[in-house]
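Put briefly, the fold is written as integer tokens. The lines below illustrate.
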Amino acid sequence: MNQMNVLKAVTWLGLLGFVGYSIAWLNLSSVSVFTGLASIFVDPWSITFGIFLDLILGLILFSIIIYLNAESKKVAAIWIVALFAIGNVVSAIYLLFNWKKIAVKISTGLNRSLLLRWLKTKNVNSCQCVVSSEYNGFFK
């Protein structure tokens, strides 16, 4: 499973969980959908919960991006702990330091580090890759 499929799955699971929670809350409160939606926007705790859920989902998704782009698991763990401790300022700092690497991975659609990790698990020490002009020498 490639990294974009993982991100899509996590995003959809978060969205479905939030929608499921909202539907269950509306059914348990035995009110109509429109009355329930109106009460969601009036109740300060539901607004606070929505903001908190948005923050947590954003931190989790950015943690996945950090994990998939980090050179090692230790470096990823340090960034992720700092992200949850300090907040989105860490994500801005991470993007400042790693935007070129992320842009290359997005533009090529390939993740060299995942390929190299896979090759290491298969005990392959070197790999001769045929490079087409489409990937601009991404593998060397």
In short: The CA atoms of residues 28 and 69 lie 42 Å apart. The two ends are 24 Å apart (CA to CA). Helices lie at 3-28, 33-42, 44-69, 73-86, 88-108, 112-121.
